[in-house]
Amino acid sequence: MGEPVLQEEHGGKESVKYFCGKLLENMSDAFRQHELSRHRTRPPSTGIARRTRLLVVDNSALGKEANTSGKLAYCIDVYKPGGRKKHMPHATLGDKILVAIRGEMKQAFVVGAKIDVDYRKHGIPSTDTNNIVLLDDEGNPLGTRVLMPIPAVLQRKRANLQFSKILSIATKYF
Fold this sequence. Notes:
Blueprint: E1 7-11, E2 14-19, E3 22-23, H1 29-36, E4 53-56, H2 61-69, E5 73-78, E6 96-101, E7 104-112, E8 131-135, H3 161-169
Parallel strand pairs: 4-8
Antiparallel strand pairs: 1-2, 2-3, 4-5, 5-6, 6-7, 7-8
């Protein structure tokens, strides 16, 4: 969809202007400016926060069931220091998070993050979806394959033992 266009109706001598089906003449200046602004777009994403929906990209049974049912996993907690007391920090690529999926709580690693271009670090790619790989209670991956390509910059995290297991089951990098 494109940006809404101003429409004019010529009813006699005066022209009446509409924007998105609303009469502009009856609006206050502040409301008119608000309506004409680009406020209809989503605010930029700085990372994965609480209640962010996530797509499971491994071949685990729990992940397949969640993706096919349409009830995606969502983030509950981020295992990352920092942030303010009331607000947890945002998870980015390679961070460990706690997710709720199909009534269970599981740990997961973020292998793809949808981050706005203004908040992205140089050299860190952004994906169209927020992708995770599920872990069991001991920190091993639940699936045996990662079905989507993961960023090659994650290979720097090979020193982390749990993350190196995810890199070993991944088949494609970008």
